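Milestone 3.1: sequence recovery, worked example.
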């Protein structure tokens, strides 16, 4: 999650501000010899691959921040988030692949950083690689699993994340449903919010909002990263030399990077990405083949889908988009809290007009609703107004359906079940196109940055 901030490092130079500004800040970057004595590495391809790692770093948090943002507990020498970022050779695209921290992994042979013991390769959870062998083992493990050669390593902690968001003036996030997590203290009503650093940290850390846990958290992290890119590149603040320096100090003050990622590399990348925007980015989570994959001595892990994940990593190796370019949803499509594909609908013709039921059914199916495809005539065929009958337990689905049927009446019916019923009335004119406000949660789904930024999709 804090790795989102690290990506902004390469964007900060896009303002074209002189070498001297960044040169003076180069000393603020803590260095790590992440690639020392590495052998048998994957062959390099076109473009640049960065491994972005978010670490705990709560030892740098003030007691007031610890209480306000539920950052209790002892600091751990561990990673919370791991992202593989590919910047295309033409600098026109960034592909971000989230690697779940609980992924089943097998390490190469290494020396344990804590005990000094020499280990042959063995099964672990991916985030445990950092605890055993620091950045170097993390890089080697990711390269071993993906066959993607890592060019640079960036590591960000809580402090850098919060400072950067605050210096940017906050980041705008949209949510179609209330988000409340008693573990992190996150409490957002449905709608649009500008989050400051501490609240943004709660947003990207929350894992207890729904049953999807880490997978939905990674989706929120990707949404936040897209919003961060949008804020940094569209607000004009990077064109202000004083603001540029302030932001850069906030980011670099708590970043660790490999020794080869210096001022010259930052400037070259930043200048090339001067016209970067959310539409230039694409996000996905490595496809999961098996949830709860039990490993003796390791616990419950996430096993990657070998074929689907190989397609993702092959695209990175070959400097190709993760998914074919597709047109973003039309701005006129109304955002709704539930994906229409998840809403089952039975249509009834409540009028004497022949064929109205089929016309409504066809139109709802065309915008994505899972209609029964067998419309029937209602018992009473004198309906003046279109009515949606729904079980109160499926009220969010009913709200989504009502958005597609402007002017319709919502009528709760206890015990009706998961299938919503539309009684088409004489007032029916059209079905309005709708789209899910939240991106799909399934691992392996690829979304573009402009599809998940507020008001852009």
């Amino acid at each position: 999650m804090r790795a989102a901030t690290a990506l902004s490092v390469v964007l900060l130079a896009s303002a074209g501000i002189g070498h001297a500004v960044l040169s003076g800040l180069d000393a603020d970057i803590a260095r790590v010899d992440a690639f020392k004595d590495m052998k048998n590495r994957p062959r390099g391809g076109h473009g640049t691959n960065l491994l972005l790692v978010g670490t705990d770093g709560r030892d740098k948090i003030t007691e007031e921040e610890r209480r306000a943002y539920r950052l209790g507990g002892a600091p751990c020498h561990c990673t919370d988030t791991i992202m593989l970022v590919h910047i295309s050779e033409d600098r026109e695209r960034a592909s971000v692949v989230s690697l779940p921290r609980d992924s089943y992994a097998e390490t190469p042979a290494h020396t344990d950083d804590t005990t000094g013991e020499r280990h042959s390769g063995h099964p672990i959870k991916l985030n445990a690689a950092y605890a055993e062998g620091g950045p170097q083992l993390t890089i080697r493990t990711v390269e071993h699993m993906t066959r993607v050669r890592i060019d640079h390593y960036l590591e960000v902690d809580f402090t850098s994340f919060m400072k950067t968001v605050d210096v940017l003036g906050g980041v705008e996030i949209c949510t179609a449903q209330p988000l409340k997590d008693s573990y992190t203290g996150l409490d957002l009503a449905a709608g649009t919010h500008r989050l400051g650093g501490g609240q943004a940290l709660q947003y990207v850390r929350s894992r207890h909002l729904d049953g999807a846990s880490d997978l939905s958290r990674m989706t929120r992290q990707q949404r936040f990263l897209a919003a961060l890119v949008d804020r940094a590149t569209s607000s004009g603040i990077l064109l202000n030399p004083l603001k540029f320096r302030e932001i850069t100090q906030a980011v670099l003050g708590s970043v660790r990077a490999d020794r080869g990622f210096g001022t010259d590399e930052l400037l070259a990348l930043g200048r090339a990405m001067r016209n970067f925007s959310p539409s230039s980015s694409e996000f996905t989570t490595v496809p999961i083949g098996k949830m709860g994959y039990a490993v003796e001595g390791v616990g419950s892990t996430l096993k990657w889908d070998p074929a689907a994940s190989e397609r993702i990593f092959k695209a990175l190796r070959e400097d190709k988009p993760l998914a074919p370019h597709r047109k973003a949803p039309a701005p006129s499509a109304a955002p709704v809290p539930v994906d229409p594909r998840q809403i089952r609908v039975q249509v009834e013709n409540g009028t004497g007009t022949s064929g109205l039921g089929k016309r409504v059914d066809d139109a709802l199916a065309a915008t994505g609703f899972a209609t029964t495809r067998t419309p029937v005539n209602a018992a009473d065929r004198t309906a003046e107004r279109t009515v949606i009958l729904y079980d109160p337990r499926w009220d969010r689905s009913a709200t989504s359906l009502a958005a597609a049927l402007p002017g319709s009446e919502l009528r709760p019916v206890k015990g009706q079940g998961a299938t919503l019923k539309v009684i088409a009335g004489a007032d029916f004119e059209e079905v309005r196109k709708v789209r899910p406000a939240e991106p799909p949660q399934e691992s392996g789904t690829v979304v573009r940055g402009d599809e998940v930024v507020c008001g852009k999709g």
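The longest strand covers residues 79-87. The chain has two domains: 3-329+441-451, 338-436.
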